[in-house]
Amino acid sequence: MRILLISTYELGRHPFGLASAKAWLTRAGHEVSSADLAVERLPEDAARDAALIAFYLPMHTATRLALPVIEKIKRVNPRARLAAFGLYAPLNAQLLASLGVTSIAGGEFEPALVAIAAGESAPPISLDRLAFLAPDRSNQPSGYARMHHHGESKTVAYTESSRGCKHTCRHCPVVPVYQGQFRVVQREIVLEDIRAQAAQGATHVTFGDPDFFNGPAHSIRIVEALHAQFPAITYDATIKIEHLLAHRDLLPVLRFTGCILITSAVESLDDAVLARLEKRHTRRDFFEAVDLTRAAAIALAPTFIAFTPWTTLASYRDLLRTLVALDLVENVAPVQLALRLLITPGSLLLDLEDIRAAIGPLDSKSLVYPWKHRDPSVDALGHAVFEVAHRRIKDARAAVFQEIAALAGLENFNLLPRAAIPWLDEPWYC
Ligand code: SF4
Description:
Strand content: 15-25%
CATH class of the largest domain: Alpha Beta
Helix content: 25-40%
Bound molecules: iron/sulfur cluster
Number of domains: 2
Strand order of the largest sheet: 14-13-12-11-8-7-15
């Protein structure tokens, strides 16, 4: 059977999920092509010929971008069966069904996709432990994000050593699907995936695991093997504050094996908000993580949900002032000072009474429950900050920060020139 796999966006990287699905379906005997519309055009010939067209939906933005593509595909090839796979497929199953998507595969989706291709039924979410195949990175397009470090622009490989998460933060889309569990990708598969991308010129690796230290022993074995084989390759990973503190002894190992950047979802500096989100860290823990990563000589890139129903003008100003005090202005992509809490279908946030009271009906275009802040000036600030972060996406972080601080009614800070930290030229969205 001819199958077309379509991805729309995954943070400017060639998706692991797309390449893994391709490998599984090819092994099952299908003729599989794939397209990542983040960097290439929709292959209309392949779409016309395909009997099954499956959309990879690993994140909110990808799902939103896929909706008009689904409509287009139905015009190009009305006979094709449509499927969706990845984290956001089961979360948006109802809406996708209304668009004509007849099959959903979430969680550890590969066997379900093979079953769907065979015309069999499959569970919308599976958490089976899989024996992974090496992702099929053949015909990988170019044009992805690059890592900028010490004046060098590096080609980035993208891989995943685990999926899911053992934590249950209230706002996190991983939780409704994985329910506090994670699954590992076998070490040899991860290393083979990296080797394939290194052969195509990658000199930096992004580990896209929701949290690289859900299984720290597994992760350390991978980066030690990576470093032994490719001592010049650098990497970045996402690690929660709680894990940075709990596994502080491993930070020098990360540095030694080539880790130059750790992204950490700090979300807020307000302990009351952190408790609402069940992040299991405090403002003080964040300060400690800043010290620990500095001591290990690894750049920390904190991410935030700057605008929540609990944000106040005072707490927003405190966030900006604290970033200056901690000398972290260069570490934070300006879009992180603009992001708004997304309340998506299935979110545990919907358990909170004040959230239920603040939201409107699900918006079928933005795929979120829209909410308004009780103080319109906070919403107005949020919109103004987003406009600046979006318009000045290529500008120096310190200059953009000053404009945002002025919008928040703060003084001009005396920001000393700093060497840029390692940065990926694709800002982190959700
Ligand atoms: S630690 Fe990160 S990935 Fe895990 S549940 Fe919390 S926000 Fe989600």
